[in-house]
Amino acid sequence: MDNLMSEGLNLMVFGMGFVFVFLTLLVFATGIMSKLIAKVAPEAAPKPAKSTPAAAVAAPASGGDELVAVMTAAVHQFRKH
After folding, report:
1. Is 62 helix (H, G, I), strand (E, B) or coil?
2. How far is CA 48 from the centre of its chain?
3. How far apart are CA 73 and CA 39, in angstroms?
4. What is the CA radius of gyration of the chain?
């Protein structure tokens, strides 16, 4: 029985060690690939958004109130059952 426990403990330690080493290598490989990609294909600088007239932004879409009423009724009907 003692031999079986020691073999189980030995297998557990080697298995956990192998997983730890593999995941550590995976983290380093991912970091190296990220740095390599950043050097090869740098991210494009963001362009400023074009300003839109205030009237176009403030005007709500037609039928928005009706859509809200329909959605409210659907939720109420769903919760009722």
Report:
1. coil
2. 26
3. 54
4. 30
Q: What is the pLDDT of residue 28?
A: 98
pTM beyond 0.70: the answer is no
How many Cα atoms within 13 Å fall on the side-chain side of residue 1?
0
Both tokens of 67, joined, read: 């859509």
19-77 confidence digits (pLDDT tens): 999 999 999 999 999 999 989 887 777 787 777 665 555 555 566 888 899 999 999 99
CA distance 55 to 80: 40
As given in the structure block, the two tokens for residue 56 are 């176009």
Can you read off the two tokens belonging to residue 12? 């557990």
